[in-house]
Amino acid sequence: TAPGSPRLLVATPAGDNHAVGAALVAASATLEGWAVTYLGVNVPAADVVRAATAIDARAVAISAVSTAEPARLTEELQAVRAGLPAKVLLIAGGAGGAPVATAMAAPGVMACNDLPSLRMTLARETARS
C-alpha cells in the first residue's frame, strides 16, 4: 500500500474460529488501497482495541459467522466500540456480525452484509478524509 494509506484492523471475535470471511475482508480492503493488519480468529475485544490503537487504525472490521450466541457477540462488539476512539469506524459483517451491528444501531458502527457493501463503505471512508 502507499504511504499514508488508511489502516484497517481485521479479526473475528472471541468464540468465532471462521477465518475465510475475515481473510476475504482483508483482501478486499487491500484492493481498495487500505493497509491491513489481520489478527486472525477468536480475538477478544480487549486485544482488538489494543491492536487498533497500536496501529492507529481508521477502521476495524469484525467478521462473525456464528449466529448461535447473538448476546455474546453483541457484548463483544459493544466492548470494541466502547474501547475505540470515536473517529474509528467499527464494521461488522458475516452471518452473525451484520445482524448484530444492525440491531445495535450505534454511532460509529456499520453493518456490511457482503463484500461489495464493504468496499463501498471503505471507499466512502477514504473519501471522508
Record keyword descriptors for this entry.
alpha/beta; 5 strands; five-stranded parallel β-sheet; 129 residues
Describe the structure.
The longest helix is centred in the middle third of the chain and has 14 residues, at 70-83. The protein has 129 residues and is an alpha/beta fold. The protein contains 5 helices and 5 strands, in the order βαβαβαβαβα. Helix 3 links the parallel strand 3 and strand 4 (89-93). The mean pLDDT is 93. The protein has helices spanning 19-31, 45-55, 70-83, 94-104, 115-127; strands spanning 7-13, 35-43, 59-63, 89-93, 109-112. It has a 5-stranded parallel beta sheet with strand order 2-1-3-4-5, with helices on both faces. The two termini are 17 Å apart.
Please outline what is shown here.
With 129 residues, the chain is of the alpha/beta class. The protein contains 5 helices and 5 strands; from the N terminus they run E-H-E-H-E-H-E-H-E-H. It has a 5-stranded parallel beta sheet with strand order 2-1-3-4-5, with helices on both faces.
Question: What topology emerges from the helices and strands here?
Answer:
Blueprint (H helix, E strand, L loop, with lengths): L6 E7 L5 H13 L3 E9 L1 H11 L3 E5 L6 H14 L5 E5 H11 L4 E4 L2 H13 L2
Parallel strand pairs: 1-2, 1-3, 3-4, 4-5
Helix pairs in contact: 1-5, 2-3, 3-4
The level of helicity is: 40-55%
Annotation, overall tally of beta strands: 5
The helix-and-strand class reads alpha/beta
The radius of gyration computed from the alpha-carbon positions, rounded to a whole number of angstroms, is 13 Å
Q: Give the N-terminus to C-terminus distance in angstroms.
A: 17 Å
Instruction: Report on the biggest sheet.
Output: 5 strands, parallel
Strand-and-helix sequence, N→C?
EHEHEHEHEH
Specify the overall morphology. Answer: globular
